[in-house]
Amino acid sequence: MVDRIDALRGLALASFGGLCLVLVAVATVAFVAEMHRTWEWYFRMERAISFATPLALGLCAAAMVGGFGLVFLAPEE
Question: Does 62 map to a domain?
Fold first, then answer.
């Protein structure tokens, strides 16, 4: 039981950390695009968003599975 809890905790933490990194990367590209205000940078921003959206959704789903799994498997005290 403890092994499953540790695995779910690792899944939740790793996926949430990855989600934060993806969001920071997209935000950085968007910030630079707004600083330059050129179509080339806006296109790069759109490409970054279109690449990161499926990745962010998958990481969000993994974080939710890990979090809900921790709640359901947590020992009652």
Answer: yes
Q: Give the pLDDT confidence of 8-57 residue by residue, as tens digits.
A: 899 999 999 999 999 999 999 999 999 999 999 999 999 999 999 999 99
For 63, the domain range is 2-71
- Which of 25, 19, 27, 30 has its CA nearest to residue 54? 19
- Token digits of residue 17: 């950390």
User: Which residue is associated with the tokens 């179509």?
Assistant: 39
Question: Residue 49 corresponds to which amino acid?
Answer: I
Task: Examine residue 32 and state whether it is found in any structural domain, yes or no.
Answer: yes
- Number of structural domains in the chain: 1
